[in-house]
Amino acid sequence: MFNINPFAELSATISPAIMQIYLICMIILVVGGTLFDVIHKGSAKYFFTTFKKSREEGKAISARTKAGVAVKTIASDVLTSSELCGWKRRTAHLLGMYGFVINVVATFMMVMFYVTPDITTPAIWPKLWSIGAIMVCVGTSWFWFFIRVDVSAEGSSPFRVMRADLFVLSVFFTNAFALAWAYSQSINNGWTFIFLAFYLIATTVLFGSVPWSKFSHMFFKPAAAFEKGISVANGTRNNLPEPADRTDPATRDRHSMELLKDAPIDMGLGIKREAPHHY
After folding, report:
1. Half-sphere exposure of 268 toward its Cβ, with a 13 Å CA cutoff?
2. What's the pTM?
3. Which of 161, 181, 214, 218 fits as disulfide partner to 167, beta carbons 3.0 to 4.6 Å?
4. Secondary structure (3-state) at 36
5. Percent helix, strand and coil across the chain, each rounded to 5?
6. How far apart are CA 93 and CA 241, in angstroms?
7. List of domains in the chain
8. What CA–CA distances, in Å, run from 157 to 165, 168, 225, 276, 277?
9. How far apart are CA 70 and CA 227, in angstroms?
10. Sign, CA torsion 127/168/81/147
11. What are the Cα distances from residue 273, in Å, to 147, 152, 269, 276?
């Protein structure tokens, strides 16, 4: 399974052109669904209005500062998901995110350029395709059973499904059925086309449900993080006060800080002392 291009094997039954058209249709669904989501929810309008207001009310910042904010946004908020404080949630998120990207890129390469058996598929692509799918399954399963707040903190059943779960379930089943299909194909059993059918259904649901799932948040979050960084750099901070720095004497002597004036800087774990299991 790790050494065979499953799409090249499938080309003996299904035309490569049909596979490539299907892949292009999924890309169109993502683009169209994201644009529809942006227009329908008004998120783009809100983002640009906020960005324009921040630029007009804040101090002028140089192109170098903007580039620095962009680099920090990519390195911190996008590539490492630093906004997720807990290491468990962060690890599960990164497994799912990088696994999804790896699997999608490998799928595109194998379907668009190495889709027939007479074209040798570089050994790296089937391996990356399988590894990416496994990463997604591990990350989403970890999140679903152990990290979801309604399960871990509220005591709800992990099998309770709501519309908000559409994205995580569809991305899990897409990759799970992909692995099942590739494995059944590698051992030539009778379940191959059954798993393929489920794989295609899950994939269509994943990419066709963008306006109703959390899929498009992967495009919104970097833009929002960049806008937040710009607002901090130009001093507007989206009309929010600066975080209190109790190491600064002027801040410590403010009337609103009177009760904390003599308190230790490190206040301890507080509510983080134990996991939230108070149902």
Report:
1. 5
2. 0.82
3. 214
4. helix
5. 70, 0, 30
6. 30
7. 6-236 (1.20.950)
8. 13, 16, 33, 16, 14
9. 9
10. negative
11. 17, 16, 5, 9
- Residue for token pair 């699997």: 103
Give CA–CA dist 203/100, Å, rounded: 12
Given the structure tokens 């002597």, which residue do they identify?
253
Residue type, 236: T
Residue owning tokens 């899950």: 202
Q: Which residue type does 46 have?
A: Y
pLDDT in tens, the chain (279 residues): 899 999 999 998 999 999 999 999 999 999 998 888 888 877 777 777 887 888 788 888 888 888 998 898 888 888 888 777 778 888 999 999 999 999 999 999 999 999 998 899 999 999 999 999 999 999 999 999 888 877 777 778 888 888 888 999 999 999 999 999 999 998 888 889 999 999 999 999 999 998 888 777 777 778 888 888 888 888 888 777 777 777 788 777 777 778 877 778 777 777 777 766 655
Closest CA to 276 of 96, 155, 129, 108: 155
> How many Å apart are CA 159 and CA 169, to the nearest integer?
11
Gap between the Cα atoms of 261 and 73, Å rounded: 34
Q: Is 58 left (phi over 0), alpha (psi -120 to 50) or beta?
A: beta
Question: Are the C-beta atoms of residues 99 and 135 closer than 8 Å to each other?
Answer: yes
Written as six digits, the tokens of 185 are 């194909």
Alpha carbon separation from 218 to 61, 214, 248 (Å, rounded): 27, 8, 37
Nearest CA among 248, 279, 273, 246 for reference residue 262: 246
Would you call 186 helix, strand, or coil by DSSP?
helix
Tell me how far apart the alpha carbons of residues 71 and 267 are, in angstroms, rounded to a whole number. Answer: 33
Residue 216 tokens, joined:
């498009």
